[in-house]
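hey so i finally got around to running the thing on that chain from the lab meeting. sorry it took forever, my laptop kept dying and i had to restart like 3 times. anyway pasting the input first so we r on the same page abt which one it is
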Amino acid sequence: MRISNNQIFDRAINGVIDNQIGLSETQLQLSTGKKLITPSDDPVGAASVLRLTEELDQITQYNRNNTLLQNSLSQEEAILSNVTSSANRARVLVVQAGNGINTDEDRAAIASELEQIRDEIFDLMNSQDANGKYIFAGNQADSPAFDFDATATGNRYLFQGDDGQNKIQLSSNVTVANGDSGREVFENVLARLSGTVTGGTATASISIAQQGAFDSFHKANYDAVTAANNTFTGTINGAGTQITFNDPDNTTVNFTSGEPFTFKGIEFTVTGAPTNTVEFTLSQPEKKNLAVTLDEISRALSDPTVTGDALQEALSDALVGLDNGLKKVSNTVSSIGGRINIAESVYESNLDLEIANKDARSQIEDVDYAEAISELSKQETALQAAQQTFGRVTNLSLFDYI
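ok and heres what got predicted. didnt touch it at all, straight out
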């Protein structure tokens, strides 16, 4: 087959150019460290790299969210720890106030310290984060969670927020609340349950002697819909030795007129004759936050006229309110700890996934230096051979053989 000079030149030039292109691409790979320079180098691989990069960017955002979440929860936990310390100190003071030998000056001093603790807890309930947002206000975070109304005659510390919780995405399948509403932490705290004598033909007085037993009875029998179902009647028998109540158990207790007896945690003192009755009604449950509880007991202790049974009732109310408030705070702290544990676990999982994705992406797009250097050496040799061959071919002439 006859080959023209043009064909010889074209083939030689193309050989040199192809080797130069290959050498240039390998040099670029070595200089950038990337095997994929353009998507056309490996369309499937480029698509995989793009997907893995997007996943890595998402993991980075998840980890930022995780840090934000843990910082928020740690701040809330620290605030509630301070609330707990203050409330425990208040509880000690309330117990101390029940000492029968306290003078009016002693009571006033205790009341003054309780007022300081009340103000401290009120400030903690209105804590703000680094951005000035009120932590316990729910979705109303631009305004204080709690407001003080000095003109109110009853509850002077009012919740102004809502039940909203901001949830943060930690992974594709995990979201965690980064705070708690003050309604749940502070406001939904049951005050001391109680009851009152409301009728009957006998003369009677009652007090709560066993709060736990009475609480169980109240919670099991209180009817929020039909008020009449909250009134119970005790009837003295014909012999005047027993009294039977119309509670679900039809409880009967021994009875002596004028002597105290206990029914469902309530201590009754009833003076009456056979067939006389006594009626008592379960009081409607109330909810009071810690600031309200401390406000009420400090005002009671500041009033020298509050003595005897009235003082004991106020002290009992305060102790139950503080205990229930502390329990709510403790439950929230436990919840925070659980959420932090979840965040830490997800963070570790995200780190493992990040490492795996980076390794997978590297396998696709990063250059193997040993392999690339070897290829570069081969391409340099091929280029040199092509150049030398081109030189020899272009110098060929029939005159060389004459």
